[in-house]
Amino acid sequence: MKKCLFLIFVLALGSGLAAQKQLSDVFEKGDVVWFGLDFSQAKFVQILNEQGSETEIVEKWIPAWNNLMVSEPGKYDFAKTFKKEQVIYAIETAARVNEQMVPEGLLVSSCPDMEAPEALVADLIKAYDTGSVTEGLGLVFVVTCFNKGTVQGSMYITFFDIASREVLLCEKMTGRAAGFGIRNYWAGSIYDVLKQIQKKDFKRWRSKYLSK
């Protein structure tokens, strides 16, 4: 009986270890869970007209940008960008984070540089409520700035192991905004980032991380 119990324990432990994702899984085919656009650290420069408000950003535009990623998967193609077989959408995680944002102070004259951004992103991931998604490879974009003055959106592309919340890859990217209307214009910066990654950066990251 003791031998049986020990065998069950070993098998369960082995199964748990196998479920955890490693850095190499970022570059392998398979599934990825898209947790959305995390705006909890974001600042905005001149993105609204005179009638716009910071509350509008939190209540209207941030949900609109997240929903667009889901409603137009052919354009915002995470599977093609990151060479994955399937994308599982779980943007409720980012929605819960974004709903806690305080509107005051979001509109600024210039976006400040983040101190120790990788450590900050790691702390954000640790606190995520991923709901029923308990394992697998997670992906989130932590947006830091939408800047009309520079016509750019900046964000940290972040892969993590869902089971342990360990960050596997965190890379800063900047995309050029383009399009008509506030929603499409700033979503254009995300689209530009995806195209950059498809063209060269995913291959560059593979060489950077897997050659160590």
- The total of beta strands comes to 6
Shape: globular
Unreliable spans are: 1-18
Number of helices: 6
Rg (CA only): 19 Å
Mean pLDDT over all positions: 90
The H-and-E topology, N to C, reads as HEEHHEHHEEEH
Helical residues, percent: 40-55%
Main sheet attributes: strand count, strand direction, barrel closure: 6 strands, mixed
- Which percent range describes the beta-strand content? 15-25%
- Distance N to C terminus: 45 Å
Write up what this structure looks like.
The protein has 212 residues and is α/β, with parallel strands linked by helices. The chain has one domain. Helix content is 42%, strand content 22%. It contains 6 helices and 6 strands; from the N terminus they run H-E-E-H-H-E-H-H-E-E-E-H. It has helices at 2-19, 54-71, 78-81, 92-99, 117-126, 181-210; strands at residues 31-38, 43-45, 86-89, 137-147, 152-161, 166-176. Strands 1, 2, 3, 4, 5 and 6 form a 6-stranded mixed sheet that branches. A hairpin with a 4-residue loop joins strand 4 (137-147) and strand 5 (152-161). The longest helix is centred in the last third of the chain and has 30 residues, at 181-210. The N and C termini lie far apart (45 Å).
